[in-house]
Amino acid sequence: MRAASELMQEVGLRAMTTELIAARSGASKATIYKWWPNKYSVAVEAFLSEMLAESADPDTGSAHDDFRIVLRGVMHFYTTTSGRVFAQLVGEAQSDPVVHAELRDGLIHSRRRVGRAIWDRGVARGELRADVDPEVAVDIVFGPAMYRLVTGNGPLDAAAADAIVDAALSGLAV
Q: 124-148: per-residue pLDDT in tens?
């Protein structure tokens, strides 16, 4: 994962190859292909490990605080060199069905599970509206960060994360 992360930052996602990952990591290409079907799978797993470090599920006892902490972590990740490369992966996914599936299945679904867990706990505690589709709620909270990442429209900082969560929960809270 470290070798893939370093290479994505140094040469970019498109120029990174399985051969380069193997050479940098000391693993054979056969070993890499045993665990990952392509370089995009390696990239997705590398991004997932970095995102988990930035925005794990905090479970503070407050849905508002949990969403705020996780969104701050996601937005912080987006401002890093890895975040800029992640934006390239999102772009690649728009025209390559293999990359799209890797991104959706390997990373997006995993990250959405964190949002869904926060939502479900908030509903169970009576903080959040049970009549709202949880998938839509997760989109409302986390979608603006992705929009800002890919369009460059608006900051990706803690104040922006807090404002997004406050605005989203003003309509989603009980």
A: 999 999 999 999 999 999 999 999 9
Q: If DSSP codes are grouped into helix, strand and coil, which group holds residue 103?
A: helix
Q: What is the pTM of this model?
A: 0.88
For residue 128, what are the β-bridge partners? 173
Q: 80 with 157: CB under 8 angstroms?
A: no
In angstroms and rounded to an integer, the radius of gyration of the C-alpha atoms of the chain is: 17
Q: What per-residue string of b and e applies to 79-112 under the rule 16 or more CB within 10 Å gives b?
A: eeebbebbbebbebbeeeeebbebbeebbbeebb
CATH for the stretch 2-172: 1.10.357.10
Taking residue 115's Cβ as centre, other Cβ atoms within 10 Å add up to 23
In angstroms, the CA 138 to CA 114 distance is 9
Is there a contact between 79 and 159 (Cβ–Cβ < 8 Å)? no
